[in-house]
């Protein structure tokens, strides 16, 4: 019997703690249950609805996900789906 692969939707927020006037960038990722990134989409504006399985943030002022060294998981973030 084949194992069923779960797909997770993850929001990554790239902000700059040194320059708070710089707008944060939002990236939406599709990932499998092992953490492999399947698809990456930059968002034009901040999402408004809690539709994400996980929310991660990097506040080093990086412009893209590949240049980020460390990400921090934000538990109970307002954009994270409520747990059933």
Comma- or semicolon-separated keywords:
mainly beta; 5-stranded mixed β-sheet; 84 residues
Overview of this structure, please?
This protein is mostly beta strands and 84 residues long. Strands 3-2-1-4-5 form a 5-stranded mixed sheet, with no helix packed on it. A hairpin with a 5-residue loop joins strand 2 (25-31) and strand 3. The model has no long low-confidence stretch (mean pLDDT 90). It has one domain (8-73). Helix content is 0%, strand content 33%. The chain contains no helices and 5 strands. It has strands at 8-14, 25-31, 37-43, 54-58, 72-73. The chain is globular.
Integer average pLDDT: 90
Total domain modules: 1
Spatial ordering of strands, largest sheet? 3-2-1-4-5
**Structural class from helices and strands?**
mainly beta
Give the C-alpha Rg: 14 Å
Largest sheet: 5 strands, mixed
Order of helices and strands: EEEEE
- The residue fraction in helices comes out at under 10%
- Low-pLDDT segments, ≥5 res: none
> Quick one: how many beta strands?
5
Tell me the β content. 25-35%
Large-scale geometry: globular
Number of helices: 0
Distance between the termini: 28 Å
Helix-strand layout with pairing:
Layout (H helix, E strand, L loop, with lengths): L7 E7 L10 E7 L5 E7 L10 E5 L13 E2 L11
Parallel strand pairs: 1-4
Antiparallel strand pairs: 1-2, 2-3, 4-5
In short:
The chain is mainly β and 84 residues long.
């Amino acid at each position: 019997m084949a194992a069923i692969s779960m797909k997770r939707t993850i929001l990554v927020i790239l902000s700059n703690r040194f320059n708070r006037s710089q707008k944060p960038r939002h990236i939406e990722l599709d990932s499998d249950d092992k953490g492999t990134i399947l698809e990456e989409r930059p968002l034009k504006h901040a999402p408004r609805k809690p539709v994400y399985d996980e929310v991660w943030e990097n506040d080093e002022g990086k412009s893209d996900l590949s240049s980020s060294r460390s990400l921090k998981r934000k538990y109970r973030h307002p954009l994270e789906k409520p747990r059933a």
